[in-house]
Amino acid sequence: MKISPHKHQQIRLKNGLITLVLLCLLGTLAWLSTRYSAETDITGNSSNSLSQASQKLLGSLPDKIQLTAYIKKDPSLRSQIAQLIARYKRHKADLALTFIDPDSQPEKTRELNIDAAGVIIVEYQGRSEKLNFIDESSLTNALLQLANADERWVTFLTGHGERAPDGIANFDLGQFGKELDRRKIKAQTINLATLPAIPDNSALLVITAPAVPLLVGEIELIKRYIRQGGNLLLLTDPGNRHLDALQQSLGLRQLPGTIVDNSSKLYGINDPSFVLASDYPPHPITQGFQTITVYPVTAALEISEETDFKTVALLKSAMQSWTETGPIAGKIVFDADGDEKQGPLTFAYALTRDLDKNPSTGSGQAQGGTFEQRIVVVGDGDFLSNSYIGNVGNLDMGLRMINWLIHDDRFIDIPAKIATDKSLQLSQISVAVIGFGFLVVIPLLLMGTGFYIWRKRKQR
Length: 460
What we know:
This is ABC-type uncharacterized transport system. The chain is an alpha/beta fold. 31% of the residues lie in helices and 21% in strands.
């Protein structure tokens, strides 16, 4: 069919208008992309997004945040830091990051005492914090510290073979103490035999499975601290009876024996004395927490009598567990006729009660009105030790307990994220299907498509 010149002109005009509309649409989309952004994080633990706690904090900070990274010209390290800060800039546009090579400013480097690893200075409202390690948890907690400008002190009892917050032995809590310090929680130690008073600036007293009995006077000082509303973290071990008097004053009782759990074999742990927790009750400490935590050599606890505290069973063992009162060696079985108890067993309690605020409590509380006293008792003193703190969610659980106990609830939901989705585990069947698809199916489809197109063209 012959097309007239007039028809040609109409077709050209129509095509021109369609092209113009498409160009205008593309231009509009390009302009909108510079004004607005839409993102979706599909990683398994949202490792490329900020937690809700960090987003809420950034929305509450009205002034500019300045970060200065004194880092050597290492493209990989600088890129990692820039990627983390970019997540913050999505929620706070007036957050600035500057990189400075320490070698280019030696005087400033000496003034700030910057070592070879470098340092990051966070500045807000005329105050500054120094970070030797940066992740979402440490940066957000530094911003919270700058916004509040309040010091938080935690007191660890010593003098009876307790685990030291600055110790390097396997059973000590040195790594946990460093993590607290990174989050601006200051740890101090006290021996009540030499200094019979708990410091007034302390927001929390921590007692970690003493190896020898406490003196009668020391126990009375701690009981008075509890009566006056002091916050307390009590860690004990199976067979350790040195804290029985304190537990009884809280209305708790430690059961004889060690919790054993045969279900731990499902996670590749052959030692039945390791207790794994993955199901947590509703509580501010465990809110949004879904990571497995590991507790080696754990004692069961139970409510023994009437208590003034509201109690929540914070951690429980599995249904297949029980309290083994005999040696944990060889084949062990549950003895229903003895003192052993069948699981699930509670091995951590969170206790609270409302009291009048008193300036002499030593609990770091203000005067006037009422406040909530908080206590956590755990039947395992090892889960935060240097040997086990790196296991899955142990560090996060410990930090959550501390933040709740010192009434820093806003810090609880800031996770120390680990990259759970950087490795891909495939079954042999999955590998075979993928290999067959790439090596056979896709080449055959391409060959078949090519043959079909060739046949169609040849038939014209």
